[in-house]
TrEMBL record:
Residues 1-29 are annotated as: Disordered. It comes from the Eukaryota. The gene is AK4. This is Adenylate kinase 4, mitochondrial. One of its GO terms (molecular function) is AMP kinase activity. Pfam families: ADK, ADK_lid. Keywords: Kinase, Nucleotide-binding, Transferase. It comes from Geospiza fortis (Medium ground-finch). Gene3D superfamilies: P-loop containing nucleotide triphosphate hydrolases. Residues 76-110 form the Adenylate kinase active site lid domain. HAMAP family: Adenylate_kinase_Adk (MF_00235).
Length: 173
């Protein structure tokens, strides 16, 4: 999500289909938004095909804007009462399994457990492979590797700045 924040600072509009944003995306009056809302009301994850429809409608509204799609698969822990999200890699709680503000226990949803995340990564890699190959064959694939956004973002920013001028920093807005 740090890339998303950095992209927003750079003047890009952003969309994310992750769990925290599913409810916001589903609030629209579109058929896809209404369908997504049905899943959310039952406490279920919104299936990929529905999120894709919601995201495509959202991006269609932003046709004239530069945008950044962001998402990540990670093992998260949540404080149910507040919705605060912790990630053991980059935003861990001060005490493992305990909310920083209330001291109440954190929970890990089934879809955030390491084995579920690993399964989604395998599924993603299988689904993404033809898209990656297409972009690679057209010479428009740009890959960035790393585990720390603050080390990767300067390379992403440099590429985006050369392709979508002008991208402005927050100070320049």
């Amino acid at each position: 999500m740090r890339a998303l924040a950095e992209g927003q600072k750079a003047g890009l509009k952003s969309s994310s289909g992750d769990t925290e944003n599913q409810e916001e995306l589903a609030e629209g009056v579109s058929e896809a938004g209404a369908l997504a809302q049905q899943y959310l009301e039952r406490g279920l994850l919104v299936p990929d095909h529905v999120i894709t429809r919601v995201m495509m409608a959202e991006l269609e509204k932003r046709r004239e804007q530069h945008w950044l799609l962001d998402g990540e698969l990670s093992a998260r822990w949540v404080h149910p009462a507040s919705g605060r999200v912790y990630n053991m890699d980059f935003n861990p709680p001060q005490s493992q399994g305990v909310d920083d503000l209330t001291g109440e226990p954190l929970v890990q949803r089934d879809e955030d457990r390491p084995e579920a995340v690993a399964a989604r990564l395998r599924k993603y890699k299988d689904a993404a492979k033809p898209v990656i190959e297409l972009y690679k064959s057209r010479g428009i694939l740009h890959s960035f590797s790393g585990t720390e956004t603050n080390k990767i973002w300067p390379y992403v920013y440099s590429l985006l700045s050369s392709r979508i001028p002008p991208i402005l920093s927050e100070e320049e807005h």
